[in-house]
Amino acid sequence: MDANTTAAAFRCPRRDESWMGRSKAGNLDSWGKFDGRSSCSYCGSISPDELFGAIEAGAEIGPTDKNYKVYVSLPHPEAGKPCVLSSANFEQRGEGWVQITAENRGTLPLDEWQRKNWDDGHWVQVAPRPPLADAKFYFQHLGVEGQQRFIDLLNAKKMKLGYPGHFYRLPFFCAAA
Q1: Chain centroid to CA 73: how far?
Q2: Alpha-carbon dihedral of residues 107, 111, 113, 119, nearest 10 degrees?
Q3: Contact 98/108 with Cβ under 8 angstroms?
């Protein structure tokens, strides 16, 4: 996540759900850019604006077995560019796997966190970035109006739901009629 924020500081509603988040009272979060999208600096959720924009653009919403999140299939702004698809702490064989060394570190498509935390000897699988990426959205980021908007879109069947075409578990703020 870069330092460019798109809105004022706030406290992520997911922060208070874990003992680690509660122990850091006073910490503030922000919407910043990650993979070209507005994302929460604490939990990584895309913003409500990103969610509703994606729904209205016809993006597929991926149901989960959780009542607090969905996945949103979005076009990736850097599709086709090299990226790290996977990593491992031990030798890997197969297409695209390369061991990080002092010599190649500067040429690999590592992000800031990866450059800082992965030592020489770490293995990464480099490949072109796929055209679509699944972003997560945590429903805790919806206020009452956002929850109602989501329900209205769902009831009007204006939401493209991925397989199996319905929610395994309804979002926590929904109830079956």
Answers
A1: 10
A2: -20
A3: yes
16/126 Cα distance (integer angstroms): 36
DSSP for the chain, please give it. Answer: --S-BSS--B--TTGGGSHHHHTTTT--B-EEEETTEEEETTT-PBPHHHHHHHHHTTPEEE--S-SSEEEEEEE-TTTTSEEEEEEESS---STTEEE--TTTGGGS---HHHHHHPPTT-EEEEEEPPSEEEEEEEGGG--HHHHHHHHHHHHTT-SEE-TTSS-SS--TT----
Using only the alpha carbons of the chain, give its radius of gyration. 19
Please provide the size of the chain in residues: 177
Q: Where are the domains of the chain?
A: 15-77+131-161, 82-128
Residues whose CB is less than 8 angstroms from the CB of residue 19 and which lie 6 or more positions away in sequence, other chains included: none
Q: CB–CB of 124/97 below 8 Å?
A: yes
pTM above 0.70, yes or no: yes
Residue-wise pLDDT for 3-54, tens only, equals 444 457 888 999 878 766 555 556 788 898 877 788 998 899 999 999 999 9
